[in-house]
Amino acid sequence: MSLVIVGSVAFDSIETPWGRRDKIVGGSGTYCALAASFFTRPKIVAVVGEDFPKEMIAFLRSRSVDTQGLEVRPGGKTFHWAGRYDYDPNVRQTVKTELNVFQDFRPILPADYRSADILFLANIDPDLQETILDQVTKPRLVAMDTINYWIETKPEALLRVLGRVDIFFANDQEIKMLTREVNLIRAGKKIMAAGPSLVVMKKGEHGALVLGRDFLFGVLANPCEDVVDPTGAGDSFAGGFLGFLDRAGGFSQRQIRKAAVYGSVIASFVIEDFGVDRFRSLTRRDIGVRLRRFKKLVSF
Ligand code: AMP
After folding, report:
1. pTM above the 0.90 mark?
2. Residues having CB within 6 Å of any atom of ligand 1
3. Is the pLDDT of residue 18 over 90?
């Protein structure tokens, strides 16, 4: 199968109680594509400015990410997001969102992207998500993610896209905000009533809940003693989840459950270092070792 991901490729400025980093590479598309690359060969759609490091594009390629759909805009400035974390890694404040080259990015997809089996509309402008969705001819599965910024600034466009996808990923607070519902299960059901047949509710260090039409599956987050930078955990979860499904070639309930476990395991690595750095040393063997440990943790 093939997986196409549209999302932000960004510079992130991160502040945690233990340290800060200014303008390191991040972005929903970057985290997701790198996470998925441990299972399949994802194709990415995004735009960066001339200021974006060429080394990072080379790194994406070295991980078999197809970058044909990654435009480098001459003279442009890369998307920039700044966020601050409290002592509780689940509490994050957005300090700045500068769309820059993403402001007017409406790409024409390369021919071999149009036949994607799985399309992931990672967190980005819902109008851009829709433009991409319109160009993919016959996807077997469409998933989307979002963030409070888009819920606040473009709710109509977001709901339009929501009505056309099979899986909705979001964190618990975003799901409650979008549905104006305080109970998470009721909120998830409201999302399903709007279109998706599966809602993946990410709960930060508490794991995730996967709500289907006739099942509910809970997955823990792998307990981690040293959370260095929680940024990108959600995108990496989605990347691992969809990368696994792309490799598995099917969407049975059993495969969905396994995908959620792989998503959780891969997310547990990325938070061990700032930005995407942990992906540089991570191997499939490391993932396998942690998966086995995780199995022991949740079996009884
Ligand atoms: P996560 O921690 O998984 O929720 O995702 C964090 C990533 O989302 C960061 O690397 C940011 O660059 C990216 N991001 C933050 N705000 C936005 C936004 N409004 N649109 C697209 N990407 C964003």
Report:
1. yes
2. 8, 10, 12, 26-28, 81, 97, 123-124, 147, 149-150, 231-235
3. no
